Amino acid sequence: MGMNSATYQVLSYDNEKTWWDNNCEMPTNYTSIAGIVDSGSDNKSYTTRGTITSIEGDSYFIQSQNRGLYIYNTNAAFAGFNIGNVVDVTGTRTTYSGLVELKPTTATTLYQSTNPHPVVTAAVNASDYDAFCTSANISRIVALRGMQVTNIAYRTATFDYEGVSVTGYITNSSYSALASQLTEYKESDTLVDFIGILAVYNTTYQARLYDASALTEHANVPVSSIEVTPANPTVNRGDSVTFSANVLPSNASNSAIVWSTNGGGTIDESGVFQANDAGTYMITATAQDGSGVFGGATVTINNSSTITEGYTLANPQLSGDTLGPIYVPGTNDTISFTYLEMVQEYGDSMLFDYGNFEVLIDAGTAADEQNVMAALSNCVTDECLELLIVTHPHSDHLGGLQNASSLTGVGISSIKYIVDFGGTYATSAYNNYVTFRNYFIGGGSVYYSIYEMINNATSLYPNIFSVCEGLTMRFLDSGAYVPYGQSITNLNESSVCTFFSFGNNRILTCGDLTNAGGASNNPEAHLVNQYGPSGLGLWDDTTTNIVKANHHCSGTNGSNGAVWVNGLTPDYVFVSAAIISANRSENTGGEGPTTSQHPNATSLARYLAKTSDVYCNIVNGTSHFNFDSFTSDPTLSFDGRTLDYSDAAGNIVSAELEKDFHFADSSFYAQLYA
Fold first, then answer.
1. Using CB atoms within 10 A of its CB, is residue 433 exposed (0-12), middle (13-18) or buried (19+)?
2. pLDDT value at position 159?
3. Phi, psi for residue 139 in degrees, rounded to 5
4. 539, 530 Cβ separation under 8 angstroms
5. Which is nearest to 212 in space by CA: 443, 477, 365, 3?
C-alpha cells in the first residue's frame, strides 16, 4: 500500500489539542500508548487506539498524543485499512530488540476512517537528532530534511545529516523501490528529505522507511522570520547577556544566522553580548540563506558596575577573641533565618543565609535528614557550607548528620567552620556524627569546640565571628560547657548558645538549654546577667529581639523561666517543635491533641505575656524571618505545616488556613493551652 503523503503535515500541537488530550477519544477502559510503552508489561494484554501512520504488509504503526506503537503481524482481517484510519487494537505486549510491540489477539477494528487532526510529524533538525532519539519518541513519525545518502547495504542506509550520522532501515515491502531511489540519490550526491518512523534495534536508533513516496529531493525552504530573545534586557556595564534566535520555519533549508550590534559592546557567534558602554542598542540576527530576513532585540546598558556575588575569605585574621572579617558581601545579599519544620518528635534545625554565607544550626533526627539536606541544597549554591553549629549530642539535633555522603550528595563538598559542644557521649548517633565531623575536618574544615572558644586560654579559639562589617555572630558563655573530650553529664545544659547581631536586630538560639544545675548553676540566668541590659548590653528593649524558645519551649528543670523571658524582652519568639506521633490526626482517635509539654503551658504563657508574635512549626511549618538589609525589620513568611492534626471533633484542621497564624490563634493552642 502506498503512503498518502498528505497525511504527513507538520502541524501546531495547539490545533489538535482537544483530540490528542483525549487520546483520540479513547474509552477509559483502554490503555494509552504511553501507558503501554512506559509502564506496561510484556506478555500482558492491552487494548488501545491510535491513527495508522505506516503500513508494512500485515504490520503497521499507530500514533496518539505524540506517542507511537508498532502493531506486529496482524491477521488477514487487517486487510483494507489505510494510512490515516483511527483503529482499535487488542493484543499482547512484547519487546523485540528494544522496540515495544503489540501483537494482536483479535481483529483490528475501525473507529473512524479519518483523524480530524492529522498526526503531527516531528520535524527534527540535525542538531536535535541525537537528543530526539529517546524511548519516548520511538514509533513517532519524523521528518528529516537535507540529508546526504552515504551508504546502502541491503536494507540499511546511512545518511549524513549536517555531520550527524543517521541510520535508515528499509522495510521488506518497500525494498526494491527505495533501494533503487536511494542509490540514485547517492550516486548523484542529491540531498534528500524523507518522512519515516523512529525505531530502535538493540541500542541503535533508526529511521524506518516504508514507502518511496515519502522520499523526495531536498526542497529549498527559505527563512520566513527570526525571533530574538530576550527582547528587551537591561544589564550593567561589564555584564554579558546571551541572545538566542528562533528561526522559522523549523524546516528551513539553511537556518544559519549572523549576529551583529550597532554599538554598546560586542557580540560573538554564539549570541553572547558583552556590555561596555551605557545606552540602548540594537542586536540583530540575520539569515544567511539569501532571504534577507532578520530579527532584532534592544539591550539597555546601565551606567553602573556589575552586580557581584559574595564570597568567603580563604584565611580571615584571628585577633584575640575575634575571627574576621570572614565574608565579602555581594551586591544583592539579603538575610534570612529559617526554622525548618521537623516531621519527627522535637527535632531542631535552623538555617541562616546571607548571600553565599550560610550557617546550619543542628539537623534534626536521622529521619529528617532528607528534609534538612533538601533545604541546604536550595540554599547553598557554591558547594560550601560556611558554618555548621551542633548545639549538643542529643539525636534530635545531630541525627541528620550521620553520613557525610548525604551532604556531598546534594552538592555540598566542604564546610568552612564547624563549632560544637566538644564533649563526648556514648550513643551510635553521636559516634556517627563524630565520623561525619572528622570527614570534613580531614577535608579542610576548621573545628572549634565551645568550651575552648569561651575560655580561649591559648588565643587560638575565637568566640566572636565578625562575618562582615555590620554582621556579627557571638558564641555566648552559659557557664555549663565541658572541655573537649570530656564526657557530658547534663546534655541539654551543654547546648551551644549563638547570638546574631546586625543593625537593630538580635537573634538568639540556645538549642535545648535547661537549668539542671539549680539556682547555683542556672545557665539562663547566667546568660541574662552577663549579656543582657545589666551586663554587656547586647540587647535591650530598644532592639528587635528574636528568640528561639529553649528546649522546644519545655518547662524541663525550669527552662524558659521568668528570669530568662523577662531578661530577654522578646519581640518575636519561635518554638521549634513538631507534631508528635500522639497528636497526628491518624492517631488521636478524634479527641484532638493529647499532650502539652512541648511547648509547655507555663513556659509558653511567659512568652505570650511579652509578645503576641509567637510562632511554632506545629502551626506554621517551616518559617522564615527575612531582612532586606541590616537595618530593616523582619518580614515573616511561612510554608505551612506538612503534618495534620485534628480538633476535638475529629476534623482535620486546615494547614493552609493556619499557616500565617500566631500560635495563640491556632486550634492547637485553643485545645491545649487556652
1. buried
2. 92
3. 80, 10
4. no
5. 3
Helices vs. strands in the chain: H and E counts, helices first = 15, 41
On whether the CB atoms of residues 298 and 273 are closer than 8 A, the answer is: no
Per-residue pLDDT of 240-278, as tens digits, reads 899 999 999 877 778 889 999 999 999 999 999 988 888
| Contact predicate 375/478, CB 8 Å | no
Which residue in 183, 181, 179, 209 sits closest to 194, CA to CA? 209
How much is the mean pLDDT over the chain?
A: 86
**Which residues, listed in sequence order, are joined to residue 302 by a DSSP beta bridge?**
236
Contacts of 511 (CB under 8 A, 6+ apart): 348, 361, 362, 391, 392, 397, 492, 495, 496, 497, 550, 551
Of 455 and 230, the one with more pLDDT: 230
pLDDT digits (tens, 9 = 90+) for 94-144: 999 999 999 998 888 888 887 766 677 788 888 889 999 998 899 998 888
In this structure, what DSSP letter does residue 479 have?
S
Q: In the prediction, which pLDDT does 14 show?
A: 37
| pLDDT tier, 609 (very low <50, low <70, confident <90, very high otherwise) | very high
DSSP-derived 3-state class of residue 361: strand
Q: Is 480 helix (H, G, I), strand (E, B) or coil?
A: coil
Q: Which stretches does DSSP call E strand in 210-321?
A: 215-217, 225-229, 234-236, 240-242, 244-248, 257-261, 265-267, 272-275, 279-287, 294-302, 311-312, 318-319
Contacts of 122 (CB under 8 A, 6+ apart): 66, 132, 137, 140, 141, 142, 143, 198
Phi then psi for residue 45, to 5 deg, are -90, 140
In angstroms, the CA 620 to CA 271 distance is 46
Residue 306 is predicted with a pLDDT of 59
Q: How far apart are CA 301 and CA 280, in angstroms?
A: 6
Give the integer Cα–Cα distance in Å for 40 and 35: 6
E strand or H helix at 152, and its extent?
Answer: strand 141-153
What does 58-92 look like in DSSP terms, one character per residue? TEEEEEETTEEEEE-S--GGGTT--TT-EEEEEEE
Q: What is the pLDDT of residue 238?
A: 78
- Yes or no: say if 20 and 64 are a contact pair by the CB < 8 Å rule: yes
Q: What angle do CA 612, 614, 619 make, to 5 degrees?
A: 125
Q: Which parts of 373-528 are beta strand (E)?
A: 384-390, 414-420, 446-449, 464-468, 471-476, 497-502, 505-509
Cell 540587647 identifies what position? 539
Task: Using alpha carbons, select from 522, 573, 551 the residue that is nearest to residue 392.
Answer: 551
168, three cell numbers:
535508515
Q: Could you give the 3-state DSSP secondary structure of residue 406?
A: helix
Among candidate residues 216, 219, 227, the one with its CA nearest the CA of residue 194 = 216
Written as nine digits, the cell of 474 is 557571638
Q: Rounded mean pLDDT of 483-492?
A: 90
Helix, strand or coil, per DSSP, at residue 322: strand
Residue 623 pLDDT: 94
Farthest CA pair distance, the chain: 102
From the number of C-beta atoms within 10 Å of its C-beta (0-12, 13-18, 19+), residue 403 rates as middle
Question: Nearest CA to 478 among 442, 433, 511, 432?
Answer: 511
Q: To which residue does cell 528562533 refer?
A: 246
Name 125's Cβ contacts closer than 8 Å, sequence gap at least 6. 250, 255
Which of 295-299, 531-535, 588-592 is predicted least confidently? 588-592
**Are the beta carbons of 59 and 73 closer than 8 angstroms?**
yes
| Cβ atoms 411, 380 nearer than 8 A | yes
Q: What is the mean pLDDT of residues 55-68?
A: 85
